[in-house]
Design brief:
Radius of gyration: 8 Å
Order of helices and strands: H
Shape: rod-shaped
Number of helices: 1
Helix content: over 70%
Length: about 15
């Protein structure tokens, strides 16, 4: 799956922000 890393980074960025 290529969405796995994308979702992780997306959620991670939102959490950090």
């Amino acid at each position: 799956m290529f969405l796995s890393p994308l979702l992780y980074l997306y959620h991670g960025a939102s959490a950090v922000r």
